[in-house]
Amino acid sequence: MSNENLVQARGLSLRYGSKTAVDNIGFSIPKGRVVGLLGHNGAGKTSLMKALVGLMPAQGELQVLGLDPLRQREQLLSGLSYIPDVAVLPRWARVDELIRLMSGLQPNFSADRARALLKRTSVGPRDKVKTLSKGMVTQLHLALVAAIDSRLMILDEPTLGLDVMSRKGFYEMLIDEWCDGERSVLISTHQVEEIETLLSDVMMLDEGRLVLNISLEEIDSRFVALSHDPAAAEAVAAAHPLLRYRQQGQAMALFDGAPPLQVEALGRRMRPSLVDLFMALTRKPEIQPSAQV
Ligand SMILES: Nc1ncnc2c1ncn2[C@@H]1O[C@H](COP(=O)(O)OP(=O)(O)OP(=O)(O)O)[C@@H](O)[C@H]1O
């Protein structure tokens, strides 16, 4: 593994019996990145994250922090911050008890750091988990895993079920307190619009296949969204855009690469949003969005 890559996967497939959840994918996650893992329900996000933390056997090559997740799981987990999709903290425990528990279990955990992080939240050290709201439990969980001195954080739909303010608070704490240009985070989410500004990179899974793995800067240079007059729709369609849709009442077309000059001249070039790109690359033909042209 190169020093820069915290995760390295090549020819990676994940199966449940005869069901293929992740199909022959390859990617790497260098240091200092905030990577969004996007995909519809059942695309394979949780399965991939489970394999990364050694909870699921994999075919192909997989290294996380230079370790084989399945064979060296114990060693890996001591250097990893992970919140699974069904994150639960013991309801009976008080916050300070959890901090003590983590100190005993996790050699790289700093109780002082966890207490400092919790000062950012409304969670008190004597609070019992069962008295906290869902948003507070999630912040507590983040404070606990962010207090592990690790280089990689893996978050599986961390803000599921939280209101918009709690989601914002969660991501602010993550970015301010954990991302330092050396550590990397892999986050799966369905809230594509919300995390777009946080991400440095995005990976899109569609039925187990990796259909896009790109940095946000590369999206700007590779994909073109063209806003155009409805009268030009036929000429635009003839240039085979990935997706035609409407945005703020305006007819739009999304292209992989610049469209032919005569087509580009029919409209105004705009920055494609992550959601549009996601729709274009992972949309099943039978579930066309109502906003489609
Ligand atoms: N324990 C299991 N046994 C059999 N098949 C499974 C199991 N867990 C997941 N799958 C299948 O593997 C595929 C990928 O599921 P996975 O949970 O990884 O998707 P996901 O992208 O995390 O979905 P969601 O967004 O709904 O959480 C799906 O087809 C799912 O039905």
From TrEMBL:
Keywords: ATP-binding, Cell membrane, Membrane, Nucleotide-binding, Transport. Pfam families: ABC_tran. The keyword Plastid does not apply. GO terms for molecular function: ATP binding; ATP hydrolysis activity. Residues 7-232 form the ABC transporter domain. This is ABC-2 type transport system ATP-binding protein. The lineage of its organism: Bacteria, Pseudomonadati, Pseudomonadota, Betaproteobacteria, Burkholderiales.
